[in-house]
Amino acid sequence: MKIVICGAGVIGVTTAYYLATMGHEIVVVDRRSRAGMETSFANAGQISWGYAGPWAAPGMPRKALFWWLFERHTPLVIRPRIDPALWTWLVRMLRNCTSSAYIRNKERMVRLAAFSAECLRELRAETGIRYDDAAKGTLQLFRDRKALDEAATESRILSDLGIPHVFLNRTGCVEIEPGLSRAPATIAGGLHFPGDETGDCHLFTEALAQRAMRRGVEFRFDTTIFGLVANRGRIVSVRTSRGPIAADAFVVALGSHSRELLRPLGINLPIYPVKGYSVTLPLANPDFAPRSTVMDEAHKVAITRLGNRIRVGGIAELAGYNLDRRAGPRETLVHAVSTLFSAGIDMTRARFWTGLRAMTPNGPPLLGRTAYANLFLNTGHGTLGWTMACGSGRLLAEIISGHEPSIDLEGLTLGEPDGRKTRSVSPASRPVVASTSVWRSYSNRRMAKYANAMRRTSGRFRPTDTSEATLKKEEPQ
User: Fold this and answer.
1) CB 313 within 8 A of CB 278
2) 361 by DSSP, 3-state: which?
3) Which of 52-61, 367-376, 411-420 has the lowest mean pLDDT?
4) pLDDT at 319 over 60
C-alpha cells in the first residue's frame, strides 16, 4: 500500500519507519529541508514515561492564575487575543482539572508512554541508533516544603499505576544529582523516576530518517502542503507546491498545524498550539552540571544533559501560531538553570529556540482513524511527543496494516470523551469532486484567515523564511 505521511518531525518519521518495516511504500512530505526541523529540533530532551501526565490537574486553575498575575518567572504566559479556538480549548482544559479526570488521563498517557519506552529500547537494540542518549532517570525537584507535601498525593497515584519512583529529601536529591551540591536555591526534596531516559530528539529523528530511507522511504523535503483532496469519503491526494501526490492512505502528523489542514474537511481537532522555549548551553564543569534530567517543578522547566551540552526547556505560552522569541520566557529558563547549576554551565554561549507543541485539552494525543476511510491521525502529543513517538508510530502502523494494536487505544482516539469530542461532518454529506481540492472549496474568509496565520508561523505549510545558513546558526552544537 502506498502511504503519504504529512510531516517529518519525530512523530512522522517514526510512523514512516514502522510502516516501512511492515512492507508499505512510504512518501513523507515536509516543508523543511531536513527531518526534525520544527518542534523536534530543540525540545527539552527528556524521555519521561514515568513523569508523563496531563497539564490539566487539580489545583492547576489556581496555580495558573497566580503564575499569570503575580509570578515574575512564570511557566505560563497567556497573550489575550480574540481567538475562539484558544478560549474553547481553555474551557475544555478547565473541565479536566478534576481528580477523576486527572487520574483517568494520566493512566492513558502512561499506558502509551510506557509502551513507547519499550519500543524505543527495541529500536535502539535493532538499529544501533545513537542520539546523545542516556538512561539515568528523571529527578522532579521541589523548591519548597508545601510543593513536596503535595507530591505525596501524586506518589500514591504513581504507585497505583505501577510507576517506579523514590521520594527523596535534599540529601537524596544531591546523591542523585551531585551538581546540586552548590545550588544557591532552596531544595526541599524530590521524586526520582529511575526508568526515564534522555536524548537529543533532533539527532534521533535525522538518524532514523536515514535508516528509513535505506528501507525505501521517500522524503520530499522543501515541499509545502496546501490541502487534501477528498472524494466519496476518501482522500485521493495531497496538494503540494510540487504537484499532487496520490496514495492509498494518508497520515497527518503535522503537530499544531494538523488542525488547520483538516478543518476544511469538517474535522475540527481539539488541539491548540502551545509555544515552548529552550536554551542550549555548553558544559563548563561536568561535576556541577546535571547527569540526566532535573525537572524544576517551581518553574516547570526541564534541565537535561545531552552529551557535552545542557538543554533547558519549558514555558507554556498561549499566543496562537506566533513564534516570536520573547525576553521574559528566556529569563525564566536562565533563572531556573542558574539557580541550580550555575557552576556547571557557560551562559555566555547560550542558544535560544522556540517551537509549537500541539496540545489537547486533557493531555492524551490523537491516534488512529478519522471519518475518512483512509485518513489517519498521529498528532496532539503536547510536551511528550519525544516520549511517545516510537509507541505512537508503531501503533499507527499496526492500525493501518490491519493488525491488532499492541495496547488498548481507549482514550487515545478522536471523538472520545473528556474534552476530546470534535465536530466532524460525515464525508457522505460533503461530496467533493476529486479534481477540486477541499482547500479551494473553503470560504474566502476562512482561507484569508488561515493564510494570515501561516504568514505568522514557521509551520510546515509554507516554504521557510529562514535560510539554511540562519538555521545552522540556531542549531545546537
Assistant:
1) yes
2) coil
3) 411-420
4) yes
Judge contact between 228 and 265, C-beta under 8 A: yes
- C-alpha separations of 2 from 249, 327, 437, 440 in Å: 7, 46, 20, 25
Q: Which residues pair with 141 in a beta bridge?
A: 190, 296
DSSP 103-145: HHHHHHHHHHHHHHHHHHHHHHHHH---SS-B---EEEEESSH
Q: Give CA 462 to chain center in angstroms.
A: 21
Q: What would the pLDDT profile of 233-258 be if each residue is shown by its tens digit? A: 999 999 999 999 999 999 999 999 99
Please name the residue that has the C-alpha cell 471523538.
415
Least confident of 71-75, 115-119, 463-467: 463-467
pLDDT at 352 exceeding the cut of 80: yes
Distance CA 31, CA 195 (A): 36
Give kind and range of the element (H or E) at residue 24. none
User: Quick one: what percent of the chain has pLDDT higher than 70?
Assistant: 86
- Domains assigned to the chain: 2-40+202-270+363-474 (3.50.50.60), 46-98+132-199+272-359 (3.30.9.10)
Q: In what order do the strands lie in the sheet with 375-379?
A: 218-220, 25-29, 2-6, 249-252, 375-379, 366-369
Alpha-carbon span 394 to 389, nearest angstrom: 9
Paired residues of 318 in beta bridges: 78
Residue with cell 487505544: 409
What φ, ψ does residue 259 adopt, rounded to 5°? -60, -45
Q: Do residues 66 and 74 touch, judged by C-beta distance below 8 A?
A: no
Answer yes or no: are the C-beta atoms of 341 and 183 closer than 8 Å: yes
pLDDT of residue 436: 30
48 pLDDT band, cuts 50/70/90, is: very high
The predicted structure's pLDDT at residue 368? 97
Residue 461 · residue 454 · CB < 8 Å = yes
12: phi > 0 → left, psi -120 to 50 → alpha, else beta; which? Answer: alpha
User: Please, what sign has the CA dihedral across residues 230, 262, 120, 26?
Assistant: positive
